[in-house]
Amino acid sequence: MSQPANAIQKKPISLKKTILRLLLYFVVLDVCIITLYPYFAMLCTALKSREEIFSGNSVLPVTVLWSNFIDIWSRAPMAKYMLNSIIIAGGSTIIAMLCGIPAAYALARMKFKGQTAFLGFVIVSQMFAPVVLLIGIYQVMQVLHLTDSILGLIFINAAFNQAFTIWLLRGTFIGISADMEQAATIDGCNRIQSMMKVLLPVAAPGIVTTLIFIFINAWNEYTVALCLISTDTLKPLTVGINTFNGYNIIEWQYLFAASIFAIIPVVILFMCIEKNLVSGLASGGVKG
Amino acid sequence: MSTKTPAAPAGQQVQQSSPRLPNPGSKKFFRTIEPYIWIAPSIILMAVFIVTPIAKVFQLSMNKVTRAGKLKGFNNFENFTSVIKDPAFSLVLKNTILWTVAVVVISTLLGFILALLLNNKFRGRKIARAIVVFPWATTLVIQASAWKFVINTDYGTLNALLKKLGIISASVNWTSTPTIWFIWEIACGIFVTVPFVCFCVLSGLQSIDTSYYEAATVDGADYFQKLFKITLPLVKSSLTVSTVLNIIYVFNSFPIIWTMTKGDPANSTDTLVTYLYKLAFYNGKQGEASAVSVIGFIILLMCASIYMIYTLRKGDEDL
Amino acid sequence: MKKFLASLLLSAMALSLAACGGKANTPATSGSPSSGSGTPDPAPSGDKVAIKVIAAQYGKQTKDWWAKFQSDFNAANEDIDLNVEVVSWDDIYTVVNTRIANNDAPDILNIDVFADYVSDDLLRPIQECVSDETYAKFYDAFLEQSNIDGTIWAIPDLASARAMYYNKDILEAAGVDTIPTTWAELRTACEKIKAYDASLYPWGVDMTTDEGQACFAYYSWTNGGDFTDASGNWTLNSAENVEAVEYIIGLVKDGLTNSDPATQKRYDLQELFAAGKLAMMIGPNQISSYVAGSENPINFGIASIPANEGKSTSSVGVMDRFMVFENEDTDSKVEAIKAFFDFFYEDTRYSDWVIMEDFLPATKTGGEIMAAADPDAASWIEIVGSAKFYPTAQAKWADVKQGVIDVEQKALQGGNVQELLDALQAKIAG
């Protein structure tokens, strides 16, 4: 009975599968094109001369000015800005994780008074835009002698990413059965060991996602950095490239050339980590 | 910290510090305070760098503040009354709600669908995922500048491209009315928010055990049944986190609107944050600006309380 | 390759932690602003007088110029540690207000506004901080612009004036034979240009939050109107002002201007003008060199801003300032500030700065040097000499400025100009 029925069904299914597959490629391709279009426009603009930009007639640069990409390095300390950005984003990520993982762990694995209140507090702490808090932030930094310092920015970014870190990791930890950790405890591990050795490897996808989030958010932060940092050589890339945004003109070609450089480290980081995101999946598949 | 914990009683958590605290009473004491030690770093970080500035905002909102930012004493909520009396305020509030709802709803939908697509195994998936991360890897100021540049009537690349492709013959004014400007801003907001949702959901999708699907297939479930019965409940936790945070982030989002229109013309594209920024730094009314942010905070707080009551009361089993 | 990059990133992160650790132990970083790398003495010494300056970023070379100024100044004045921070115009109000609110005002600030700081008693009378010799260099009319209640609170760092720029080739091709001098002629010229080529924008208008108040001044002042009357009372809803706003809104509504005055800033207009897409606009003297700098410069001329029939034309002058904040100053600090101004306004250095920034000088000696070097500059210096300025000494100027911009933008959306200006007048004067 079942044999013929299967045979009849098999053909349409595989056809349907091919169509679905084609559809998938089609949609993904479209999404990629739409996503890349602004960057394509930025790249083309970054390779044009000012006159060509404002003639507004060409899509691709008529004369390709690679020199724009070289000029920005002499016009502004781009390498320094980029290093500052990496330090700020990297530092913020580490501090946000060091504070966030234990908190998320406590929320997921322990019961204590004020648990809900703490979760609420975490959300409430995010309800003011940094723009709104500028004056207060500056005041705190003055007291701590952290104005005009990269360390101050690292703390601010780490603090503003706590909510995300805690909420996402708490969800991830709750989704993972505690049995394995209990087994580890029986084997003589203490809490910290069982968390480090058992829970964290299994939670890798969530942790990696959180890492990317914090890194990108810190990488892109603009307003606080603008107000806190006054020394040119301490500025992150986001603030530094404002050099090309003058009183009388915006130098689009330089602004966009610099912006393209600013994207590269994040995309590289993502490509490296994405691999772990997939392999994390393999270990995440441990049966609960 | 010593990690040696010899002769641990089976099934019981033993703390490394227990040898130092021999009596059972202090062990119990430690277990009560232990969770607070775990959350302490996080609390300290937020208390110092977020709560203190928030207190400052409340202080400013209650005081008469001079243009140069000096406090001149409590002024009987005058900042609040003068803000609410301003006819522009209701327009701005309406814009803010429209902006938040449109961006969050549409980008959550699109991000979710995109995550489902990218969760399939296909050739070039790695590249596609990397491309999707682009909008998010770009500073919002630059992203918005790029959009403004692309849709510019006179030298924008969109017009140039469409002309080259022969779709239009003369330059089109893509931003002829304030409403259209606002739509572009919403589109840009969606563009940068979709990757955030997408990766939140992807991380949730990847921890789903494939055996669930296999079992469902055996039971004869179709694609949508599997989607609503298995996928959705399992990614719900990451989806809620991303939605709640998105509401807050988008509500407070500043650079997109500021870069594209500065809320012009006449507040028709202003949201609360751009409005208060103008109040604070263009009109020198920091007291009123702080009052606006307190009002915005109260609105968000109400939304969040509804959410809290809804999810946390129901218990944690679905989170 | 990827592994390599990953390890690179990781080591950068590790580095960052190390850097944090290092910094945490030396909070002095914020206390001793790093002087330029050229200075041989990096040790923060207690007996040096530190001066903090915030300067506005006018152009692409501003930063480099100030960096060189700082190292030259510090080399010439061994007992002073000068630190100049250059901030872009987009951000300067945010930065300055944040610092002032936290009692961390700079010693010297270079910005356009000053009345707010005076009303909060934050500034020193500028004459206390400038040597007599330097003080004598300024045009008296310019100093008067910073007079509140008989005290001069700021000195001008530079000036700029506005005039009408027109594209000679477009006007000729469109059959506009005489350069418009009245509003009616301007409208006719615009209509002719539009008829000649509908893809051209005849007239440039900027009603943005950045500079919409200039638009108000262009038409109000050439119609015999003003923000205030002679004794300083606000006259925002005068008949002249209503007529002026209605005139320019009329041009926009009839499609004789750029497409989106509420979001197109002056530099958007400037780009359009330089690209030959905008026939005429009102702009500052920098446009000349800006246009001349392009590969195929357009053929342009400069004329007075058109005035209404029977009214006289008026240029709009813009002036930025230096002011000194009261920060528990010692005598030696005041001396250091004097030294700063002497150094800055030293004739060759000052004219070098003004020429570099492409503005007009605010000192007589600077004006003479520039006029001698460049006949174009001479005529501009004459224009700025007769220009009117915004009433920046009025405490409510910031409200008025945002108010008129709001009126313009609402009028663009179809609001009644008379009602809008009445409401603004009532709000400001009432």
Notes on the structure:
The complex is a heterotrimer of chains A (288), B (319) and C (430). Helices cover 77% and strands 0% of the residues of chain A. The two termini of chain A are 38 Å apart. The longest helix of chain A is centred in the first third of the chain and has 45 residues, at 2-46. By secondary structure, chain A is mainly alpha-helical. Chain A contains 14 helices and no strands. Chain B is built from 12 helices and 2 strands. Chain B has helices spanning 24-62, 78-85, 87-119, 125-137, 140-150, 157-164, 178-206, 210-218, 223-251, 255-260, 272-281, 286-313; strands spanning 63-65, 71-74. The longest helix of chain B is centred in the first third of the chain and has 39 residues, at 24-62. Chain B is flat and about 70 Å long. Chain B starts with 23 loop residues before the first helix and ends in a 6-residue tail after the last helix. Chain C has 2 domains: 20-160 and 317-375, D-Maltodextrin-Binding Protein, domain 2 (3-Layer(aba) Sandwich); 162-314 and 397-429, D-Maltodextrin-Binding Protein, domain 2. Chain C is built from 19 helices and 11 strands. In chain C, the strands form 2 sheets. In chain C, strands 1, 2, 3, 6, 7, 8, 9, 10 and 11 form a 9-stranded mixed β-sheet that branches. In chain C, a hairpin with a 2-residue loop joins strand 4 and strand 5. In chain C, helix 18 (397-412) packs antiparallel against helix 19 (417-429). The longest helix of chain C is centred in the N-terminal third of the chain and has 24 residues, at 2-25. Residues 1-45 of chain C have low confidence and may be disordered. The chains are: A mainly alpha (288), B mainly alpha (319), C alpha/beta (430). At the A-B interface, helix 1, helix 2, helix 4, helix 5 and helix 6 of A face helix 1, helix 3, helix 4, helix 5 and helix 6 of B.
